[in-house]
Amino acid sequence: MYAALGLFVFELATVPFSEEEHRRSWRHEPVSLVGERDSAQFVGPRDDVKTLSGILAPELAGSYAEIDTLNDMADAGEPYTFVDGTGRVWGEYVIVALDLRKQHLLIDGVPRMVDFAIDLKRIR
After folding, report:
1. From the centroid of its chain, how far is CA 11?
2. Per-residue pLDDT tens digits for 14-36
3. How many domains does the chain divide into?
4. 107 lies in a domain?
5. Distance CA 35, CA 55 (A)
Protein backbone atom coordinates (compact mmCIF):
# COMPACT_ATOMS: atom_id res chain seq x y z
CA MET A 1 0.00 0.00 0.00
CA TYR A 2 1.33 3.43 -0.99
CA ALA A 3 -1.34 5.36 0.90
CA ALA A 4 -5.06 5.46 1.67
CA LEU A 5 -7.62 8.22 1.28
CA GLY A 6 -10.58 7.17 3.38
CA LEU A 7 -11.36 3.62 2.31
CA PHE A 8 -9.67 4.07 -1.09
CA VAL A 9 -6.28 2.36 -1.08
CA PHE A 10 -3.59 3.50 -3.51
CA GLU A 11 -1.68 0.39 -4.55
CA LEU A 12 -0.45 -1.38 -7.66
CA ALA A 13 -3.88 -2.91 -8.35
CA THR A 14 -5.81 0.39 -8.09
CA VAL A 15 -4.13 3.73 -8.86
CA PRO A 16 -0.38 3.48 -8.25
CA PHE A 17 1.18 6.91 -7.83
CA SER A 18 4.90 7.37 -8.31
CA GLU A 19 5.28 10.91 -6.99
CA GLU A 20 3.91 12.81 -4.03
CA GLU A 21 4.32 16.56 -3.63
CA HIS A 22 3.42 18.27 -0.38
CA ARG A 23 3.13 22.05 -0.05
CA ARG A 24 2.33 23.90 3.16
CA SER A 25 2.12 27.65 3.72
CA TRP A 26 1.54 30.04 6.63
CA ARG A 27 0.00 33.49 7.00
CA HIS A 28 2.07 36.47 8.11
CA GLU A 29 0.04 39.70 7.97
CA PRO A 30 1.95 42.97 7.54
CA VAL A 31 2.15 45.38 10.47
CA SER A 32 3.04 49.00 9.67
CA LEU A 33 5.65 50.64 11.89
CA VAL A 34 6.53 54.34 12.02
CA GLY A 35 10.08 55.09 10.95
CA GLU A 36 10.98 51.42 10.49
CA ARG A 37 10.43 48.61 8.05
CA ASP A 38 7.09 46.91 8.25
CA SER A 39 6.91 43.91 10.52
CA ALA A 40 4.70 40.84 10.23
CA GLN A 41 2.30 39.12 12.60
CA PHE A 42 1.99 35.34 12.36
CA VAL A 43 -1.73 34.54 12.17
CA GLY A 44 -1.71 30.80 11.48
CA PRO A 45 -1.52 28.13 8.83
CA ARG A 46 -2.71 28.64 5.29
CA ASP A 47 -3.00 25.84 2.73
CA ASP A 48 -1.74 22.28 3.08
CA VAL A 49 -1.90 20.61 -0.34
CA LYS A 50 -0.72 17.20 -1.55
CA THR A 51 -0.42 16.19 -5.20
CA LEU A 52 -0.23 12.51 -6.06
CA SER A 53 0.80 11.74 -9.63
CA GLY A 54 1.72 8.76 -11.72
CA ILE A 55 0.87 6.60 -14.70
CA LEU A 56 -2.06 4.23 -14.92
CA ALA A 57 -1.45 1.37 -17.36
CA PRO A 58 -4.07 -1.35 -16.80
CA GLU A 59 -2.07 -3.90 -18.79
CA LEU A 60 0.63 -3.55 -16.12
CA ALA A 61 -0.86 -1.84 -13.09
CA GLY A 62 -4.06 -0.14 -12.01
CA SER A 63 -7.62 -0.03 -13.24
CA TYR A 64 -9.67 2.58 -15.10
CA ALA A 65 -12.63 1.81 -12.80
CA GLU A 66 -10.65 3.26 -9.89
CA ILE A 67 -10.56 6.66 -11.62
CA ASP A 68 -14.37 6.58 -11.57
CA THR A 69 -14.25 5.83 -7.85
CA LEU A 70 -12.00 8.84 -7.25
CA ASN A 71 -14.36 11.00 -9.35
CA ASP A 72 -17.30 9.84 -7.23
CA MET A 73 -15.38 10.64 -4.04
CA ALA A 74 -14.57 14.14 -5.35
CA ASP A 75 -18.21 14.69 -6.40
CA ALA A 76 -19.35 13.81 -2.87
CA GLY A 77 -17.28 16.69 -1.50
CA GLU A 78 -16.58 14.81 1.71
CA PRO A 79 -13.31 14.95 3.66
CA TYR A 80 -11.30 11.73 3.84
CA THR A 81 -8.49 10.76 6.19
CA PHE A 82 -5.14 10.52 4.39
CA VAL A 83 -2.77 7.83 5.70
CA ASP A 84 0.62 7.18 4.10
CA GLY A 85 2.23 3.78 3.60
CA THR A 86 4.06 3.98 6.95
CA GLY A 87 0.77 4.37 8.80
CA ARG A 88 1.16 8.09 9.52
CA VAL A 89 -2.18 9.92 9.64
CA TRP A 90 -1.85 13.30 7.89
CA GLY A 91 -5.36 14.65 8.54
CA GLU A 92 -8.62 15.16 6.68
CA TYR A 93 -8.34 16.01 2.97
CA VAL A 94 -10.78 16.78 0.17
CA ILE A 95 -10.13 16.09 -3.51
CA VAL A 96 -9.90 19.47 -5.24
CA ALA A 97 -8.66 18.39 -8.68
CA LEU A 98 -8.13 15.28 -10.79
CA ASP A 99 -6.13 15.72 -14.00
CA LEU A 100 -5.98 12.97 -16.62
CA ARG A 101 -3.98 12.76 -19.85
CA LYS A 102 -4.79 9.75 -22.03
CA GLN A 103 -2.06 8.33 -24.27
CA HIS A 104 -1.62 5.64 -26.90
CA LEU A 105 -5.28 5.36 -27.83
CA LEU A 106 -6.51 2.14 -29.37
CA ILE A 107 -8.86 2.08 -32.35
CA ASP A 108 -11.91 2.24 -30.04
CA GLY A 109 -10.49 5.25 -28.17
CA VAL A 110 -9.46 3.33 -25.05
CA PRO A 111 -6.09 4.57 -23.80
CA ARG A 112 -3.30 2.14 -23.01
CA MET A 113 -1.85 4.65 -20.54
CA VAL A 114 -3.21 7.53 -18.48
CA ASP A 115 -1.03 10.11 -16.73
CA PHE A 116 -2.84 11.37 -13.66
CA ALA A 117 -2.49 13.93 -10.89
CA ILE A 118 -4.77 14.22 -7.87
CA ASP A 119 -4.74 17.39 -5.75
CA LEU A 120 -5.78 16.99 -2.12
CA LYS A 121 -6.36 19.93 0.25
CA ARG A 122 -6.26 19.51 4.01
CA ILE A 123 -9.26 20.89 5.84
CA ARG A 124 -8.63 19.50 9.36
Report:
1. 15
2. 888 999 999 999 999 999 999 99
3. 1
4. yes
5. 56
